[in-house]
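for the writeup, i need someone to sanity check this before i put it in the appendix. the sequnce is what the collaborator sent (i think, or maybe the updated version? ugh). structure was predicted straight from it, no edits. if anything looks off just tell me and ill rerun, i have time this weekend
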Amino acid sequence: MSDMAQKDTAFKVLLAIGVAHLLNDAVQSVIPAIYPIIKDEFALTFTQIGLITLVFQMTSSIFQPFVGRYADNHPSPYALTAGMCISLCGIFLLAFAGNFGMMLVAVSVVGIGSSIFHPEASRVAQMAAGKRKGLAQSIFQVGGNGGSAIGPLLAALIILPNGINSAMWFAIALIVGAFVVARVGRWYKRVVASSMVSDVRKAVSVLDLTPCQVRNAMIVLVVLTFSKQFYMSSMTSYFTFFLMDKFEMTVRDSQLCLFAFLTASAIGIIAGGWIGDKIGRKYVIWCSILGAAPFALMLPYVGLAATIILAVIIGLVISSAFSAILVFATELKPAHVGTIAGLFFGLSFGLGGIGAAFFGWLAEKTSIEFVFQVSTLLPLLGIVAALLPDMKKVDRGV
């Protein structure tokens, strides 16, 4: 059974974990999607909007490395269900939040649920991957990206006309997700937890890299994660405000444009995983982040139609980077899949929160347009991917 789990790709499990990721992240993406609504309803400043994102992203990130480390030593099949249930409590608190303080509490509870869900879900995806690690992470990630794209659309259709209290309808998604991951948990416990853990612990990297080279590669991956997540935080948190400020778009239309950007990201991530398995993760990372730079640099200076087109192109190009970074990192440390997944998911959420808070502060001091002029420089950091070692043959023997 262990050999089967290592060599064959369990697509049913990957589909289930991808659907759960979609439902989980659809609910999470409601939080930034309702920023224009709560900003007016509660008279919030851009700094307060940034603080909401910071609290949400930091609680989403701070526990993830610890959850991943624990899972490496003590597999927790039902941690996925627990994470969904905690997020369920958070979304009810958000629906009935009456002030800024209660919003911070609500998003922090949703964030804690997310921090429990993501590293263990990524670990399941890795275990079900067989030799198609890039594709498996892409299926898992596209679920999250798809959820992030659907969330703003649903917020525009449900919360915008009915008010913040209607956020409680999103609890249905978390209830469904809890049932899905409960079934995945049984598969994990029966097939994976008993056989794969010992195999993963015995895994030895086939790369001829010194500890110093591995450490340096990890540093490069952190820099690349910073570049991508800081830029993505400007898009996901402030793209709607940019469109409303520069082009006088309505809240609804700006959210539909954000939906287009996030949908493009969801589409691009599948192609990135498949290409990474074929040609190597290094080249996908390099082309994904640095390749988005020319389009990002043009975005603040063009008209409405070109802005939307460029946003879609950027979403397609930059979207594959994170799954490639995550797989690259786990290939550097094959015996610590849970820890690495938790670390990079936590880093991703944490940097996103810091970026949102920073850009919110910068918008208060300058303007939304200036924020986008500055943030578009970040993808240029993708050039450091050239320093990564060649990992094309990493799957051999692992």
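The chain has 17 helices and no strands. Residues 212 and 274 are 30 Å apart (CA to CA).
thx in advance!!
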